[in-house]
């Protein structure tokens, strides 16, 4: 079964984290080795880190169908920082991977305990409709 | 009959034969789109059958035979479809024509196919996909994986590309002298893009990607063999080899990017470097110098320095001077500014960046900020350098590069606050 693991971390209006080099490198290294591990175990379908929220635009269609873009976000809302799609045997395995990512090291090496939303991605074949 | 390592050999053989077989089928049936599908099917049949039954005595003839049969089936079903509407006599003749493999002229169609697939009428992403399939002999699945898109998306991209070729009426023939210069430039550009895609993406997802850089080098080699006197073809091949030579040193153990100045140079591939330098040495005196030859020459100067501090920057600056006059490409102007800073000091380089600001073509481009950050650091203006590194990090579309730029900003920031 496929699951999407959505990592929410950054707050609206926040840009690039301003961490000491050692902590930044530890965080990057952690994410890279997690991805490598998932790739090697054959569970990784896709992993993407997103640009910082200050690059985000909220888009809606106007009455004429033309896009209306809005770059200002309400204060305090959490934002998607990145996501994984994994193909795993059990939901428990998806939760375990999410927990690993959640505890990625932050400033001073302390785990960040970021919230991850885990949801199944329906991707099975359609049933025989007789 | 071959087994084991024969699998690799037969795969290589298939790749080499693909454009020749396709050329033969197009010449017989005059339908590029259908012929390309038929050859793809023949290649897949070979992949399944050859390891089991052995490579046939004349593999090229075998492939032409199988692809011709597919074409005949296709025309037959098309005729049946149309007969329900109106019957056409011409197609009957085409179908009746005997398939005489032995009489097939031994002719290399690689170049003609490259000119077709890289036609300026196509978008570069279409041209890349079509070139890899029709000339490179890769399967749609392999190409899709290399570009990290679903197979259906890639199949659609290829079929659209073929439709555009049909619509634009590009003929299957060698271009005239007038067309040739422009089309050759388009082909070289597509090969350059394929190489870059493989080279720049080498960090991170390396394991699951087909080696696009190797594929681009293979195609450039084939082109150089067919056009040995063309300086720019040789220049592009040399540029690829001289750049690819540094691959092993480009990323660290954690897949992080390592800039040229900090690379472990003993990891550079000396065989590729000498091959690239030899290509340049052979073609440079032959006549007018092109942009690929100049870029290759710059890469060669870097490659020939045993340590970063041994780099002959005055020579690199002279080469960028020439390149700047030739192309006016803002990226070249940017690199010219770096070389200037290395020779005449950071403030001379920063002045050139100000000119680029006014030019506007690189506005908001992360590279401009990254280079400014680097030169500001050289000049000792750390706070401003940190700010520029961070702007660049927020704007780059490459995750490994973002990580690199953030780390550079953090390193400088540490040196101020935690000396």
Could you please describe the fold and organization of this structure?
The complex is a heterodimer of chains A (130) and B (419). By secondary structure, chain A is α+β, with helices and mostly antiparallel strands. Chain A has one domain: Alpha-Beta Plaits (2-Layer Sandwich), CATH 3.30.70. Chain A is built from two helices and six strands; from the N terminus they run βαββββαβ. The radius of gyration of chain A is 18 Å and the shape is flat. In chain A, 15% of the residues are buried. By secondary structure, chain B is mostly helical. Among the domains of chain B are: 91 residues, no CATH class; 104 residues, no CATH class; 56 residues, no CATH class. Helices cover 71% and strands 0% of the residues of chain B. In chain B, helix 10 runs antiparallel to helix 11 and helix 15 packs antiparallel against helix 16. The radius of gyration of chain B is 25 Å and the shape is elongated. Chains A and B meet through helix 1 of A and helix 19 and helix 20 of B.
In the CATH scheme, the class of chain A would be: Alpha Beta
Total DSSP helices of chain A: 2
Proportion of residues in extended strands of chain B: under 5%
Q: Number of domains in the coordinates of chain A?
A: 1
> Structural class given helices, strands, pairing of chain B?
mainly alpha
Please mark out the parts of chain B with pLDDT under 50 across 5 or more consecutive residues, or reply none: 96-106, 202-208
CATH architecture term of chain A: 2-Layer Sandwich
Taking all residues together, what is the mean pLDDT of chain B? 86
User: Multimeric state of these chains?
Assistant: heterodimer
Mean pLDDT of chain A: 84
Percent helix of chain B: over 70%
Number of strands of chain A: 6
SSE sequence of chain B, one letter per element: HHHHHHHHHHHHHHHHHHHH
User: For the record, what is the CATH homologous superfamily label of chain A?
Assistant: Dimeric alpha+beta barrel
Please give the alpha-carbon distance between the first and last residues of chain A.
25 Å
């Amino acid at each position: 079964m496929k699951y999407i693991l959505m990592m929410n971390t950054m707050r609206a209006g926040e840009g690039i984290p301003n961490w000491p080099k050692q902590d930044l490198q530890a965080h990057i290294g952690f994410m890279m080795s997690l991805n490598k591990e998932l790739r090697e175990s054959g569970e990784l379908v896709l992993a993407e880190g997103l640009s910082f929220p200050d690059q985000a635009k909220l888009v809606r269609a106007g009455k004429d169908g033309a896009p209306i873009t809005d770059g200002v976000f309400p204060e305090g809302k959490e934002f998607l920082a990145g996501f994984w799609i994994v193909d795993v045997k059990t939901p428990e395995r998806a939760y375990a991977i999410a927990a690993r990512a959640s505890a990625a090291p932050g400033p001073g090496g302390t785990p960040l305990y970021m919230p991850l939303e885990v949801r199944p991605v329906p991707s099975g074949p359609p049933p025989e409709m007789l | 009959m071959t087994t084991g390592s024969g699998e690799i050999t037969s795969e290589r053989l298939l790749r080499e034969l693909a454009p020749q077989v396709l050329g033969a089928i197009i010449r017989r049936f005059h339908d590029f789109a259908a012929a390309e599908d038929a050859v793809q099917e023949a290649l897949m049949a070979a992949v399944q059958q050859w390891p089991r039954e052995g490579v046939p005595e004349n593999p090229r003839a075998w492939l032409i035979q199988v692809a011709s049969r597919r074409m005949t089936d296709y025309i037959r079903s098309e005729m049946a479809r149309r007969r329900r509407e109106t019957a056409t006599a011409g197609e009957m003749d085409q179908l009746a024509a005997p398939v005489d493999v032995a009489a097939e002229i031994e002719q290399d169609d690689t170049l003609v196919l490259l000119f077709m697939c890289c036609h300026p009428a196509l978008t570069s992403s279409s041209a890349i996909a079509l070139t890899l399939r029709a000339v490179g002999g890769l399967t749609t699945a392999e190409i899709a994986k290399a570009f990290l898109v679903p197979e259906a998306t890639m199949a659609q991209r290829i079929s659209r590309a073929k439709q555009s070729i049909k619509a634009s009426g590009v003929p299957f023939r060698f271009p005239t002298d007038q067309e040739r210069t422009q089309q050759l430039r388009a082909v070289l550009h597509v090969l350059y893009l394929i190489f870059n895609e493989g080279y720049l993406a080498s960090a991170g997802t390396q394991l699951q990607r087909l080696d696009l850089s190797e594929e681009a080098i293979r195609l450039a080699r084939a082109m150089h063999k067919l056009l040995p006197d063309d300086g720019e073809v040789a220049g592009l091949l040399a540029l690829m080899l001289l750049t690819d030579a540094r691959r092993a040193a480009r990323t660290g153990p954690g897949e992080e990017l390592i800039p040229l100045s900090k690379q472990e140079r003993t990891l550079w591939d000396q065989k590729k470097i000498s091959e690239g330098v030899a290509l340049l040495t052979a073609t440079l005196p032959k006549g007018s110098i092109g942009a690929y030859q100049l870029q290759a020459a710059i890469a060669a100067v870097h490659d020939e320095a045993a340590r970063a501090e041994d780099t002959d920057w005055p020579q690199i600056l002279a080469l960028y001077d020439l390149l700047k006059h030739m192309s006016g490409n803002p990226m070249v102007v940017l690199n010219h500014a770096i070389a200037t800073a290395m020779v005449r000091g950071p403030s001379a380089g920063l002045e050139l960046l100000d000119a680029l600001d006014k030019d506007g073509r690189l506005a908001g481009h992360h590279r401009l900020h990254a280079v400014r950050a680097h030169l500001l650091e050289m000049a000792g203006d750390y706070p401003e350098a940190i700010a520029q590194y961070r702007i660049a990090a927020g704007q780059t579309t490459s995750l490994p590069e973002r990580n690199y730029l953030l780390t550079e900003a953090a390193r400088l920031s540490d040196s101020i606050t935690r000396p």
